[in-house]
Amino acid sequence: MDIDYFKDGKVISLKPLRRKARFPAVGQVEAYWEGLRNGRPMPARAEVDPRGITDALAYAFVLEKIAPGMARLRVAGRHLSELMGMEVRGMPFSTLFLPEARSRLQEAMETAFTAPASLRLSLAGDTGFTRPPLEARLFFAPLRDEQGRPTRLLGALQSSGRVGRAPRRFAIREIEVNRLLGEPGQAAPLARRVTRGLEHRDASRPAVARRPRKPRLELVYSADS
Question: What CATH number did the domain enclosing 127 receive?
Fold first, then answer.
């Protein structure tokens, strides 16, 4: 945790606020997903309405699971295509990552589908003569299908810095896992920060008491649009 100042004898970190300020589209998509699920483990794919994330559409995407730990871009905003220098819809999501990062990405996506969990990732672009330093943030979280199975991921990827020569692919610096343990009407996520691989909750530990919380967004949407 980055220590920024003390208030009332407590250490206060401004890192989450800085992250939202630098990557507002990622924060908007995460808040939209949280508002949709409204305390449930996850919302339905049919509930997603692009009008709820108008300002973030260029950075948003929907992934479709095609195999354990593998997903393709079913819907992708133009920012992802700008990073790759080509249309990315229909491509494996792992295409946006360096080869050495793909095993961690696959594990992260499988965790999102099976735990289930929402994840935040800190990314760094590959660098070179025509590729200046590039930092990015990534968020994705599960969506259930008509049978109640998590088969899609809603997410956003936003970079900070000059793109330079495409394609730009990313290394993974940090992964933050937010396990979705809430029952209907409750939201009791278990958050863990992971810098080397993904951790799994020890089921032998006593459960943490859960308290209901209010949804972070109120949304008006139409599943038929």
Answer: 3.30.450.20
